[in-house]
Inverse folding.
């Protein structure tokens, strides 16, 4: 009976002589029969460890998938540090090769992998009774072949790595492609703990410690998962391991070594490099090798130069630094003297992985031109980039200054450089070797030598994202750029408390400048948004010029709004409709969302002037007229003039003053409270909405064209507006709609009316 079990070293002691708390608790519980289905065999002590050996009674079925016996001899090894799981060994010398075994330096005794949670989390619930119950459960489920559930991920074919290497994400283009590539690896980290390397396809210019390596990729045939025997330590043992995958690793390496030696352009570099062997190991479930479910990638590092490996594999002979070609056949192999070590691996982040890590099914290649990457723009673009969203052209001519560092994603290394170039460099360091970002250090409104580059970027973009916080830039992008790209504007109010998102519809029926006007109306009319344009105190001077001033904005507001803004922008660009959204943050960091449905916009020409209004205003005017019929009514119009482009925006009206005279055939607008009401609107909107003209209604069956009295009023209005250098504006409402007159009166056909 004893010959069936693997013996362990150490001094035999009694259970009460054990010093490690968990070891003593387990041994005494079993020895005193406090734990069912377990019988103590012996206890041992060796350097820093204590071992409890017992026989466990296992509940097994009559027909078993794996040959687990009714009585299994188990050893539990406790470490003095108690910083890792107690190791559980099956001491039977013929214990089967099954799933969920830990990889060890030697294959026997086999080590049971009991848990998939961190030991630190498990320790607080650990008891001898639960521990032995888990061992018995593991053995019972293994006997039935159901320890590994169908919905569980497949087990690794190899574990227990000595270090970590980060590989280029595009090193393996396809599972079917076998390739070799020269890489450069260099150590990272503090120098303590496991080795950590990162690999690049190009030699780092700032590192003299880079080690050239050549990667050799080998694809195995599908294998059942959970086939864990022991960790290969030599090339010979590694060849034995992959032989079950249908490849002769040494033969493949010998063939590749000959080929590399015949490539004069890379021969010296390759032969003087170290070798990394990358194994592609398709894994199947329950022995179904014809339908692999997943792919395991394992990386082995060889400690000798390829020139020396070639000699040990009998491919060539070394004469000093020279290689001699063998004549008459290969020399004997010494693969058992070529040491290898298993490295854990990961790949440099790419856009697809970035998207998955952010919870998105795939990356998105929408082309975006970002205008302005300052305090808000830089984290917004970074958020998008980290999520694999968009291919970006960054347009910004500003230089990063020291005071920007309080609110910008870039650091002191970029001070003095263009923000656009700094951002492109920074983003490229997050996702390497990508064409997803380009910088143009130019003023989008006056690009100078970058004119053709900016013009092409804007014309070929799917989305133009304005984060400049400049009205002039937003108007320029909306009105002066020939591009079918959808315009989106994202900006914060002066205090940083509010975030605003304006997004055109996909067909651009609601332009950005028109949404801007509707945004002003929302600020003017919604008491919950009061104080939106209030000036902030504490502007600071960072230079000697009169323009060298910057505003104080809390970084926590910027962080909050950049997160909200990037997510919301992604959502609205996937929706074809126009959007107008405002978020207001409170002192506790809670953000309240105000979403307004943009009104249908209307544009007509009156002489040289383009009149822009929307259905919200026309419906409001119509309701005012209907409520006063059969009398006439009216009031003042609020909006804005764009004198450069000759556009007048008619956006709102105020109720008819109480001292107005309203008759069935006459309306004389009063003045009581009017000036203060107009001034209030102007103050709330920071002067963006102002008095722009008059409107009045006509009785039933009376067309909306000016009467003789209306002509007199228009003459008065012309004289009034000329003092400000502005055109006269009058609207007249009737049954057929609203007539609009700018600059001069013309009798217009019904088809030219605003309806």
């Amino acid at each position: 009976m004893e010959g069936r079990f693997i013996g362990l070293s150490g001094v035999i002691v009694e259970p009460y002589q054990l010093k490690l708390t968990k070891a003593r608790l387990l041994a005494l519980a079993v020895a005193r029969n406090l734990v069912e289905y377990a019988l103590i065999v012996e206890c041992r002590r060796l350097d820093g460890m204590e071992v409890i050996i017992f026989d466990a009674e296992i509940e097994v079925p009559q027909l078993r998938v794996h040959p687990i016996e009714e009585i299994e001899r188990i050893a539990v090894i406790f470490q003095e540090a108690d910083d890792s799981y107690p190791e559980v060994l099956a001491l039977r010398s013929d214990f089967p090769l099954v799933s969920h075994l830990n990889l060890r330096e030697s294959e026997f005794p086999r080590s049971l992998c009991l848990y998939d949670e961190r030991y630190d989390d498990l320790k607080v619930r650990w008891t001898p009774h639960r521990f032995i119950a888990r061992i018995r459960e593991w053995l019972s489920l293994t006997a039935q072949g159901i320890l590994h559930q169908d919905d569980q991920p497949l087990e690794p074919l190899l574990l227990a790595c000595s270090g970590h290497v980060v590989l280029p994400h595009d090193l393996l283009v396809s599972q079917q492609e076998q390739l070799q590539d020269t890489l450069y690896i260099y150590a990272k980290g503090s120098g303590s703990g496991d080795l950590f390397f990162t690999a690049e396809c190009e030699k780092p210019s700032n590192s003299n410690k880079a080690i050239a390596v050549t990667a050799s990729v080998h694809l195995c045939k599908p294998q059942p998962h959970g086939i864990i025997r022991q960790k290969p330590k030599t090339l010979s043992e590694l060849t034995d391991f992959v032989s079950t995958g249908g490849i002769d690793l040494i033969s493949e390496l010998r063939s590749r070594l000959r080929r590399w030696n015949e490539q004069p352009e890379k021969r010296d570099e390759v032969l003087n490099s170290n070798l990394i062997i990358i194994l592609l190991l398709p894994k199947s479930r329950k022995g179904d090798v014809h339908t692999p479910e997943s792919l395991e990638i394992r990386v082995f590092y060889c400690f000798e130069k390829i020139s020396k490996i070639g000699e040990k594999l009998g491919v060539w002979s070394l004469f000093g630094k020279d290689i001699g070609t063998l004549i008459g056949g290969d020399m004997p192999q010494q693969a058992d003297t070529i040491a290898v070590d298993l490295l854990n691996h990961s790949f440099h982040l790419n856009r697809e992985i970035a998207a998955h890590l952010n919870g998105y099914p795939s990356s998105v290649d929408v082309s975006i031109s970002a205008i302005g990457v300052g305090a808000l723009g830089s984290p917004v673009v970074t958020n998008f980039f980290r999520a694999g969203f968009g291919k970006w052209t960054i347009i910004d001519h500003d230089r990063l200054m020291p005071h920007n560092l309080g609110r910008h994603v870039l650091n002191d290394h970029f001070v003095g450089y263009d923000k656009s170039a700094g951002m492109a460099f920074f983003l490229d360091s997050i996702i390497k070797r990508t064409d997803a970002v380009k910088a143009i250090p130019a003023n989008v409104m006056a690009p100078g030598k970058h004119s053709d580059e900016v013009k092409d970027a804007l014309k070929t973009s799917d989305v133009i994202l304005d984060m400049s916080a400049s009205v002039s830039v937003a108007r320029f992008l909306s009105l002066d750029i020939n591009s079918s790209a959808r315009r989106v504007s994202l900006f914060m109010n002066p205090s940083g408390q509010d975030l605003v998102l304006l997004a055109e519809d996909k067909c651009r029926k609601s332009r950005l400048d028109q949404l801007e006007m509707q945004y002003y109306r929302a600020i003017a009319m919604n008491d919950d948004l009061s104080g939106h344009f209030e000036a902030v105190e504490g502007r600071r001077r960072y230079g000697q010029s009169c323009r060298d001033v910057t505003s104080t904005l809390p970084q926590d507001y910027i962080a909050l709004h950049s997160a909200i803004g990037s997510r919301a922008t992604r959502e609205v660009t996937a929706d074809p409709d126009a959007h107008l959204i405002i978020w207001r943050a409170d002192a506790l960091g809670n953000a309240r969302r105000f979403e307004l449905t943009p009104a249908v916009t209307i544009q007509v020409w009156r002489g040289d002037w383009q009149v822009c209004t929307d259905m919200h205003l026309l419906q409001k005017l119509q309701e005012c007229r209907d409520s006063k019929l059969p009398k006439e009514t009216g009031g003042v119009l609020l909006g804005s003039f764009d004198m450069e482009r000759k556009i007048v925006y008619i956006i709102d009206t105020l109720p008819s003053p109480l001292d107005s005279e309203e008759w069935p055939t006459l309306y004389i607008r009063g003045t009581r409270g009017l000036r203060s009401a107009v001034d209030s609107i102007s103050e709330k909107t920071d002067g963006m909405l102002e008095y722009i003209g008059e409107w009045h209604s006509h009785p039933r069956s009376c067309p909306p064209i000016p009467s003789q009295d209306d002509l007199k009023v228009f003459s008065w209005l012309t004289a009034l507006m000329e003092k400000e250098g502005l055109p006269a504006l009058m609207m007249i409402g009737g049954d057929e709609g609203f007539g609009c007159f700018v600059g001069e009166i013309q009798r217009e056909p019904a088809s030219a009316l605003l309806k």
